[in-house]
């Protein structure tokens, strides 16, 4: 008979890898900042860097505060199914692959629907692309936990799930750089590289809504969203903020959504707006 998992079981056995890695990542970003300045590459802008750092630090502490809620939801779904997958090295790899598949779709919906774009836009509204960009994680992104609940329903142990999830998040750090250019073709065919992710962050017309992969780029190749890097990316978003206020950078699309919903005289259409493409928010506004 399957043994039920408690919140204490997970909290005591799932190390907080991101918290431990945070000082190292900040140090590496500062090092990249220094080399960028020394080599006059202009990969960093001071106000933008501190905005990214502020957003990232709040995100880390926010996750510490609400960890029990997020863990609790995953544990609850794991406990309601009668089956479980044994914890071994190879099932852990399977969990990571399944999770990465879910991350692909979470990321894709994060670009293709207004609701989830509001939880993700913070990561894209910098006009610079550097290691500190990886810190820009929205304070409302936890809504996307719904995309990861199938991992629990499959029967993967919650501790394995959380470790895999943290490894996937940490993988994102090194791909946010201009310093690493092309990597070997065998690696680039399977794994997301800085080249792939620069495309994803670009607002060049043919770069939009491409390369959603988190760790594996194979999902983009399978589902028709792959785009190789064939020109320098222009970073930022089409409706680019003209400030460095961390709070506004996190919530500006939420504000646009609520303004648009208030203008709608039809409650059904107002709700439908949440699931329409983000372009619907600005259809009556000229975008440069």
Instruction: Encode the helix/strand succession as letters.
Output: HHHHHHHHHHHH
**Main beta-sheet annotation:** none
Mean pLDDT reading: 94
Outline: globular
Structural class: mainly alpha
| Rounded Rg | 20 Å
Tell me the β content.
under 5%
Would you report the number of β strands? 0
Helix content: 55-70%
In short:
By secondary structure, the chain is mostly helical. The protein has twelve helices and no strands.
Fold and architecture overview:
- Helix 2 (17-38) packs parallel to helix 7 and helix 4 (89-112) packs across helix 7 (158-174).
- The protein is mainly alpha-helical.
- 56% of the residues lie in helices and 0% in strands.
- It is globular.
- The chain starts with 6 loop residues before the first helix and ends in a 16-residue tail after the last helix.
Could you name the key traits of this structure?
single chain, 288 residues, mainly alpha, 0% strand, globular
In terms of topology, how is this protein built?
Layout: H1 7-13, H2 17-38, H3 46-80, H4 89-112, H5 114-118, H6 149-154, H7 158-174, H8 185-190, H9 194-201, H10 218-223, H11 246-263, H12 267-272
Helix pairs in contact: 2-7, 4-7
